[in-house]
Amino acid sequence: MAATTATTTSVARSTGAMKLDGEVTNYGDWRDDLNRDGYAVIKGAIPRLRADGYSDKFYSYIEGL
Amino acid sequence: MKKDKLPVVNEKGMILHYGVTHEKWVWDIRSEPGVVEAFEKVYDDTDLIVSFDVVNVGFANREDLPENKPWPHQDQDPAKPGFRCLQGLVNLNPCGPDDGGLNVCKGGHRLSEQFHKDMADEERIPAWTPEWYGYTENGMKWLNDKGLEWIKVCADPGDLIVWDSRTPHYNVPTQTTQDRFAVYTCFMPVKSATQEDLIRKKNAFESKFTLNT
Fold it and tell me: Cβ B83–A20 below 8 Å, yes or no?
């Protein structure tokens, strides 16, 4: 039984690249949205403080042109 | 906001000039671990190349630009179906329902192959590359008849929005006083590129062109 469980887990976890076929998946994160809807939002991919820093650099760049 | 004090930004908000795509802070954004990891997870591959893509800015109080008409499209050649490329944008300012930004046709990727079979005889909107396909009024009607919805994607600063390049999408200008800042990030597995692609890309990098391939 243990071997069967392990096999099932590895099939679910490492099937190579995502297929984005619209089917329901069970990654437990934004990838389920992406596979089903064709898009997803990854919250806080960049920590907020650094993101605000990049926004400041964007403004400085525009003002400096 | 005075036009003569601003760099060239088209009505879609794209800054295509000035080599902005190679500014250090733009490369820093593309190199953010949370951004790269998202693409690694989708491709199940850590050997990726990144596009030198455009930077998008939408100032709230500009009235001198032509109207930004919705321009629904997909960034994949319909002749090459199946999932090939994940596109992304890093959002840097608050982006609510009326703040402008990306609109996507939810679930459109799932019906992409069927769409292009059914619409094979539809006249094509002229494009500069076969990897761009514009949705006509008939095409939009097809999506609507299938019950697909268009969603304005909302995000906070630091969020990464990703989408299948087959998913129909377009951007809309802000209706509020909030400026929009976004950096496009698109990674592909190195193994999907030919040696010729890689040499072309290396040359583009060295001469600081903007390439979204």
Answer: yes
